Amino acid sequence: FQTKELAGKKVVITAGGTKELIDPVRYIGNRSSGKMGLAMAKAAQNMGVEVTLITTVDAAIAGMNIIHIQTANEMMQQLQSIFPTVDVLIMAAAVADFKPLHVADQKIKKNDDEDFFTIKLTKNPDILKTIAATKTNQFVVGFAAETQNLLANAEKKLNSKHADVILANNVAQSDAGFGVDTNQITLLQKNKHPESLPLMSKDEVAQKFWEFYLTLVKA
Ligand code: PMT
Questions:
Q1: Transmembrane ranges (predicted)?
Q2: Is the CB of 17 inside a 6 Å radius of any atom of ligand 1?
Q3: What are the residues facing 185 on neighbouring strands?
Q4: Fewer CB atoms near the end CB (10 Å): N or C, the chain?
């Protein structure tokens, strides 16, 4: 459903796992399918929000501005120019914390005499932390993908990354997190008790999130 409160609001959403190049044919990636971010984007569009989706996965949705990128640095560049123009940022993408220090110009050849091959990694920017530090009136939503100590780790991310809300998911659960159609989210806000939602489809998670955002806008 569309509401007058959300009509004309602008949101930028990231989705999918970044791909950090090793050479022209290889990359370091992760298991993110982009489903969670895409669900957020579609639900927003259905509620009358103007959506820009920055993603590593193939996606074409009528009426949505979709920007395809591969690496964390490319995602960061796109966000830096779009963020000042939006009302909401949602970082659903799984951003690689590290990338190869050097990207080989040519395909790396196997050396038959060596059993080991070493790739030196260097830190990627923390996109959410960097971008959210520049916020003026934007509402900033991060995810926390955890395999242990969900609440404690998510709480740390809420504080250190300047997010207004963290949506925490336990990615060790087989029916939540990466790749699957369902998710189980705990919503964290500053100075409020964490709110755990039941297991539901990613589309339902997205719908619940936008309903929650609507209550904040109306308040
Ligand atoms: O794509 P799906 O297959 O549907 O899976 C959904 C999901 C599991 C990827 C999604 O629900 C999710 O949890 N996304 C965040 C994954 C992640 O990178 O979590 P994190 O806890 O490592 O990072 C915390 C937050 O900081 C995230 O919002 C992330 O986008 C952001 N981040 C992380 C590292 C980095 N260098 N820069 C960032 O901005």
A1: none
A2: no
A3: 169
A4: C
